[in-house]
C-alpha cells in the first residue's frame, strides 16, 4: 500500500506541472490574440498547492510579471493558503482551536 505522503507528492507535482503549462499556454494565446484563461482560474491553482509551478511559469514565460493586480491577488491567495495549511497542521497535531 503506497504511503499517503507519496501520493500527496505525486498530486502536487502533477498540479504544479499543470499550472506551469497553463501559464505557457495562456502566454501563447496572449501573443496570438486568442481567448485567454481567466485570472481567477490561475489564482485558484494556488489553493491546490500550485504556487511553485505558477511562479516558475511566470518567470519562464515572462507572463503576468508586470500586472500588479494579479500579483497582489496571487500574494493574498498565498497568505490565505499558508494560513489554512498552518491551521490544518496545528489541528492535526492536537492543537485546541479555542486557544487560538
Automatic annotation (TrEMBL):
The chain crosses the membrane at residues 6-25, 37-58, 70-91. It comes from Engelhardtia mirabilis. This is DUF1294 domain-containing protein. Keywords: Membrane, Transmembrane, Transmembrane helix.
Amino acid at each position: 500500500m503506497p504511503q499517503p505522503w507519496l501520493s500527496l507528492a505525486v498530486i502536487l507535482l502533477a498540479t504544479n506541472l499543470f499550472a506551469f503549462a497553463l501559464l505557457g499556454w495562456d502566454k501563447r494565446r496572449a501573443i496570438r490574440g486568442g481567448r485567454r484563461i481567466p485570472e481567477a482560474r490561475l489564482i485558484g491553482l494556488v489553493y491546490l498547492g500550485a504556487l511553485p509551478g505558477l511562479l516558475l511559469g511566470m518567470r519562464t514565460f515572462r507572463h503576468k510579471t508586470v500586472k500588479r493586480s494579479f500579483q497582489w491577488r496571487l500574494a493574498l491567495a498565498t497568505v490565505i493558503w499558508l494560513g489554512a495549511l498552518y491551521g490544518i497542521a496545528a489541528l492535526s497535531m492536537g492543537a485546541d482551536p479555542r486557544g487560538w
